[in-house]
Amino acid sequence: MAEIFGIPVQAFMGQLMLGLVNGSFYAMLSLGLAVIFGLLGIVNFAHGALYMIGAYVAWFVLETVGINYWAALLIAPLVVGAIGLVIERTLLKHLYKLDPIYGLLLTFGISLIFEGVFREQYGVSGQSYSVPEALQGATNLGFMVLPNYRAWVIVASLIVCLGTWALIEKTSLGAKLRAGTENPALVQAFGINVPMMVMFTYAGGAALAALAGVLAAPVIQITPLMGTNLIIVVFAVVVIGGMGSILGSILTGLALGLVEGLTKVFYPEASNIVVFVIMAIVLMIRPAGLFGKEK
């Protein structure tokens, strides 16, 4: 059997694929965080809870209404986006002119409340969500067998991440949004409703977290703590990529997923800390992150 660095090719490629799937989730979640921080200046610690709620909404509509996975990909982001609207209008809008630490503390508290509510309602045992019928099975690539659902997760994540980046960086809507957050008084003078744009930006970030939750539901156990277990790693991804850098978060998320996968092949004991080791090294060399701008 062919080997790479003394490891069977199938095992090596399998770990790389697992790392790329994890990297896809890191990229989607860090993308939402980067959008919210880059445009609103809010360190959104509630992002993991919104990701968890997205997965639960998908599971709930399947189990109680019989709505399938494809519809859940639309319903869950809409529901969680609406929750984001309420959070922004009732709580966050009062913090934009204050130190970012207030936003961090508030969203951390929101996260704890959501987790507590879901633990009370569903307990801590995981809920399962079946892979949709159209994506069951696997494809033999010759050097490895690739599960169809994992391939779908990678493709869907790339489409969403690159589409969001293009929307913000390459369109007139994105230019207005960036200008509105830099100088809201000037932009409002041109008749643009900046508060509404800010509100929908936070809702859009929340919807991205929910979409990641729906994609993750068939490959993990849905629990109230699934967001908490992931959010620290995702924050590390955002810091390494550069706080507020959308493209940096996408590329860093995918790259760190691969690094994590390779670490599991060569030194599994370090796989849980390799992201934080890289973060420490990057911060020592480049405090603004790999793609961030020095202020």
From TrEMBL:
Transmembrane segments: 12-29, 36-61, 67-87, 149-168, 200-220, 232-258, 270-289
Transcription regulation listed as a keyword: no
Main location: membrane
Sorted UniProt keywords: Amino-acid transport, Cell membrane, Membrane, Transmembrane, Transmembrane helix, Transport
Compartments where found: Cell membrane
Membrane topology designation: Multi-pass membrane protein
Record-linked InterPro entries: ABC_transp_permease, BCAA_transport_permease
Keyword Transport in record: yes
Family of the protein in this entry: Belongs to the binding-protein-dependent transport system permease family. LivHM subfamily.
Name of the protein: Branched-chain amino acid ABC transporter permease
Species for this entry: Piscinibacter gummiphilus
